[in-house]
Design brief:
Oligomer: single chain
Shape: globular
Distance between the termini: 34 Å
Strand order of the largest sheet: 1-2-5-8-11
Largest sheet: 5 strands, parallel
Helix content: 25-40%
Length: 168
């Protein structure tokens, strides 16, 4: 197999991401491909987020060598709980900020009414397709990653964290 140039890798990523946007449920096996391409171009957060989606969709296991490698590259331990939601009218998103969690949100608009702050948690929020969170997310001393998420809040700050590692 020949090596792909970075330009071709980026083209393939664009194609795969477009396929996911069209129908993320029927594209099983695509997330591990996307994760490996992101890893190849040294996009650590993209590789990690898509590897987590691949685990949730049972494309790979938590014991998979690639998955373990992506987790070891992170500055904090990967939360054990992976929660996937396809209901934007479910429990408010900020409810999940009270636990160490990987929250995978399917397309839609989710709400985060002003509530309790996340304290000393490891939190990863991943959007599949177009995902918007309306409201404010806040906390302290957290490790916090958001991937493919739009946050809208017009009253004050949409993200407020102190003494934390955050990657958006």
């Amino acid at each position: 197999m020949t090596e792909m140039t970075k330009e071709n890798q980026l083209r393939v990523l664009d194609y795969l991401n477009a396929s996911v946007s069209l129908d993320f449920r029927r594209n099983k096996g695509i997330y591990i491909m996307i994760a490996k391409l992101y890893s190849a171009i040294k996009n650590q957060i993209g590789a990690y987020a898509n590897a987590l989606i691949a685990v949730e969709f049972s494309e790979i296991s938590r014991d998979d060598e690639f998955f373990v490698e992506q987790c070891e590259k992170m500055r904090f331990p990967t939360p054990e709980d992976i929660i996937r939601s396809n209901d934007s009218h479910m429990i408010p998103v900020n409810y999940f900020l009270l636990i160490d969690v990987v929250l995978i949100l399917e397309p839609g608009t989710y709400y985060a009414p002003f509530g309790r702050a996340a304290e000393e948690k490891n939190i990863v929020i991943i959007g599949i397709g177009e995902v918007t969170i309306k409201g404010s997310l806040w906390g302290g001393n957290c490790n916090f990653i958001m991937y493919n998420i739009c946050v809208e809040y017009t009253i004050s700050h949409s993200l407020m964290f102190y003494h934390q590692s955050k990657f958006l």
